[in-house]
Write a structure and sequence with these properties.
Structural class: alpha/beta
Number of domains: 2
Order of helices and strands: HEHEEEEHEHEHEH
Strand order of the largest sheet: 2-1-6-7-8
Number of helices: 6
CATH architecture of the largest domain: 3-Layer(aba) Sandwich
Helix content: 25-40%
Number of strands: 8
């Protein structure tokens, strides 16, 4: 059980220390992954970016992922019951939201070039692993040196699934029974946009001081 995302982030950062000498970047899953990733970035000295990918949901069940999209790429697992044109319409809608998020959190800063680098994807917890799996597959297209998934807590099912696609999955806890990410935090309050901006601005000040 973690006190909060800050404590969880420190514990995760300690387990990711071995990558400190790599040329790398940390990609945080908004919004809950940001306070965790902040601690990782402080430890490793890597630049931080916000993960800008979203799942493409099935037309009959939006929670069921049939693929994922970023601002520049996407992939879809073919389904016979997905009508023609549906994916294109979803891409327009998803990318409009992603652009808005990028502008809000990253402003005019250009995206980091991940080619050949160690990319560490950080979230505050992983239940099924399906959304992160989509992110890993999209990031792979940018030809990173290796992809590491880091999370304070993850289900056994998610770890097994992600270990097939990422070079390593680093966790603090892999519980026998998993009843949702929030069950492993004393404080699991929702992270607001203002809190995200607070962490990103703190990192900006750290960079200037360094």
């Amino acid at each position: 059980m973690f006190k909060d995302r800050t404590e969880a982030g420190r514990l995760l950062a300690a387990k990711l220390k071995k990558y400190k000498d790599d040329a790398g970047v940390v990609l945080a899953v908004p919004r809950g992954g940001i306070p965790v990733a902040y601690q990782v970035v402080r430890e490793l000295g890597f630049p931080l970016e916000v993960v800008l990918t979203k799942k493409i949901g099935h037309p009959n069940n939006k929670e069921y992922a049939i693929g994922a999209a970023s601002l520049s790429d996407y992939f879809v697992i073919p389904h016979r019951d997905v009508p023609p044109g549906y994916v294109e319409r979803e891409l327009v809608s998803i990318r409009a939201r992603l652009k808005e998020m990028y502008q809000k959190f990253m402003g005019d800063a250009p995206a980091e070039n991940i080619s050949g680098k160690t990319v560490i994807i950080v979230d505050d917890g992983i239940a099924t692993g399906n959304t992160i799996l989509g992110t890993v597959r999209l990031i792979r297209k940018g030809q990173p040196g290796k992809i590491i998934v880091g999370s304070p807590v993850a289900s056994k099912e998610a770890v097994q699934k992600l270990a097939k696609e990422a070079e390593e999955v680093v966790t603090v806890l892999i519980p026998e029974e998993f009843h949702g990410v929030g069950a492993f935090y004393e404080n699991f309050n929702e992270v607001s946009d203002d809190e995200v901006m607070f962490y990103l601005e703190k990192l900006g000040r750290l960079k200037k001081a360094g």
